[in-house]
From TrEMBL, chain A:
Family statement: Belongs to the CSN12 family.
InterPro entries cross-referenced by the UniProt entry: Csn12-like, PCI_dom, WH-like_DNA-bd_sf
Ranges for domain PCI: 209-389
SMART domains with a match to the protein in the record: PAM (SM00753)
Gene3D superfamilies (alphabetical): Winged helix-like DNA-binding domain superfamily/Winged helix DNA-binding domain
Pfam families in alphabetical order: PCI
Superkingdom per UniProt: Eukaryota
UniProt name for this protein: CSN12-like protein
PROSITE patterns registered for this protein in UniProt: PCI (PS50250)
TrEMBL record, chain B:
Species whose genome carries this gene: Molorchus minor
Protein name: SAC3/GANP/THP3 conserved domain-containing protein
Domain SAC3/GANP/THP3 conserved, first and last residues per copy: 15-179, 181-245
Any Pfam family matching the protein: SAC3_GANP
InterPro entries on file: SAC3/GANP/THP3, SAC3/GANP/THP3_conserved
Amino acid sequence: MTFMTLAHYLQIIDRSWRAQDGSKIASFISLRHEHAKYQNYHVESPEGLVERFLISPIDDLVVLHLKCLYYIAVGDFLEAYRQQSTLVQNFSKILQLQKEENWSLPIMYTICSDLRLVAQQAEKQKIGPNENPGEILEKAAECLMGCFRVCAADNRSAEEDTKRIGMLALVNQLFKVYFRINKLHLCKPLIRAIESSPFKECFSLSQQVTYRYFVGRKAMYDSNYKAADEYLTYAFENCHKSSRKNKRLILIYLVPVKMLLGYIPSKKVLEKYDVVQFWDLVQAVCQGNLKRFDELMDMHETFFIKCGIYLIVDKLKIIAYRNLFRKVYLILNTHQIPVEALQSALEYLGQDVDLDETQCIVANLIYEGKIKGYISHQHRKVVVSKQNPFPALTTLS
Amino acid sequence: MRSRKPTKLVLSNLFSRSAAGKATQDPKHLRPPNILLRTVNYLLDDILSRQDTPFIVIYEFIMDRLRSVRQDMVIQNVSSSYFISILQPIIRFHAYAAYRLCEEEINRFDPHINNTHLQECLKRLLYTYNHCDRITQVAEDNVDEFLLENRPGFEALYLILNLGSPIAITRTLNLPPKMETLPTLLLMIASLHLPAIRRKALETLSVAYNSKNLSFPVQLLKELLLYDTEEQLISDCRYYGLEVQNNGVYFSKSLFDLKKSTTPQKHCCFVEKN
């Protein structure tokens, strides 16, 4: 089976280039477009043919694109990556020369995203003795930074023609790379560039969603849960409803963050997005059932670690402690709770703690404002406030 | 100055920065990996143990020469096994120095510079370990066991050195589970975090045990926070603005001075005993 002939394909590109139709070229130079699958596009040396149809500088890009397709078809992703990387580099030079116009930005979006995808494949394939894991992705990130610099430096053009509008798409690609190779510290300057951009509100909604998903995750790792909640909630609410996979990804981070802030997800939502792993955990936390909590952490350990949320989820334990201690308080119905009573409750639920450790847990709860009161070491009592000793978690700052 | 006569003359390269217009790349001046390893062994076996010179001088000397070794090693990109055998002792040296010299004055020993070297070597070593993983996966050809036998220790060192860093913890969580109890070197590095941990603990306790009339026994607090002496604990408490009377600390939310910077790092008995 064949798609349109190569000559026809080149004619379309030629016409679109002259008409400055960025989106059309973008789809025809994409590795994910339909034409990429057909054998007549897998050409090892397409230079001669391409030059008959295309003018400079687009001819060079198409040559590299076809070569890249060829190497993907023969299964050599390392070489395909090299072609695509040259393609992006050459494109950034073309972009820089296009003063006061930004119609070619869609091409940049496509080839940059392709570059990252090819780099990921190449990572899996490389075996050379001098390569470190993540090295190809790191090089790809440098290449993306080249485009980013061109866009960020374009401050002369009028608002409707500015290339600075392309920054967010690149930042999102870079986030994807940095999160994959665990180089989160490199995100900070990118976030600063976007937050200080006058076009902050003008970027497309889909890009905003992606951006906030990553910034939210970053805030979560930095223990800044309020901000994480804000970013991830925006991402979840604005993510298109047909993108279930993406909504699920957002939820994996949003659920623990929300829970830390005292909000409990509904079972319906968790089922809808296939993250029921959280449901038992939600119940264990609400009931203060530490034994069940520990079991669940064990059971879902791999899943939590793979998503990078193990330590965040583990922090929910302090809320489970709070709920358990509240029950003890209600049962004893006194404002002076003996530390021994709390320790017995903990031991009953399989926690191996002595009196000092029990006091330590209470001390942290008081410090965080989750219990109002103080501990008397001499009397071995936790003296809780007469008014609202266990304030609702959602009221804490 | 030197009373000991050298039995034979030993020379070790001085570190020099690469700079424009200087031919550092002359292959004739590069030492092959086996010589580099011998240099490291000589420095750390013979020089480090010398008693006739203050440790700070020995440290300066060795640090400089090791840096030169690393430079030669990187330029010729030696094999993974040499990377591992050379880097491991260098890392131990820098980690040891970080603890041994932590009470030294800043103009004699800069913990930040030492830490930079330590991190740099450690990261390169971890990269090399990862690389070995890949070779094993791809070629199904096992890298020599002895090269990897110290890996858990160094992975732990990286984590402890970077306590609280999400990057370090993510790496460690993704490793195959294989951990042991802390060897002395790790205790040393861990103990350097103690001042910060104690400060956080005292701050938390000041809120939780906030009371004008009630106190917390000094003796118990000393044990909980791993202080060597009660005097040290009392001095720290007073430094942060807390009152100490009759062997009791009076914790107070309002008196704890959040503006005070963390107390300096100190040697600890429980580390030295090991």
